[in-house]
# Entry
Amino acid sequence: MSDLGVLTLAIETSNPSAAEPSRAEVAVGPLGGAAVAVEAVSGDRDRDDLLPAMDRVCRTAGVRPAEVRVVAVSLGPGGFTSLRAACAAAKALAVMQGAGVVGVPSAVAAAAAEDEWWPAGGLAVALASKGARALVTVFEHSPLRDGAGAVRAAEGMRAMAGDEVVASGVRTLVADQHLPEAMRAACEAAGMEVRPLRLGGAAVLRAAGLFAVLHGEAADGLAPLYGREPEAVTLWRERRSGSGRG
# Structure
């Protein structure tokens, strides 16, 4: 596609508590290519470090923010606040710079991060665990080698229990530290390998090339991918209902 290779800023803050140590990043490089520079976003809750990190990564790469032509963002599923903040920052930069936006499902970015060792039989990515289930995306092939397959896989994300993951036929599960123990036990009992989730700005940058069809669309079309109603919204609705207000 003609947009591939244009200077892109990628944001990954979808699951900052998914791994130890917590990792959120921004990266700069060519759309669909390797990162030129990567900067960590501080997990300090007392300050908002996302916009400063975006400035730092441009300085490290030796480019001006005005040169960024595409903003790619990891859409989730993930943390309610972190996803909203990332999408808001991406929209703001895109509007100010007249840049395009590219939304990347976080599961696709996670699968793209495993391209170097891609296992026979494919893998599943589990995110946003709740109870005994998680939102699972099944990939038969690496997203970086089968873009159309990656898009189909992302569209097929659904809530699964451990036995359903086993029945998917893949032999590897990529999951964060919040994976339900029942799901982990079911997968390991079936001989599946459970690998830790890896998310980062560089993976979002590479995977963004698959979703570049969004480049040039209005920035206000960018929205988090929750997969289910965010818990914060559910709690707000329950409290509002309990207070007697409609």
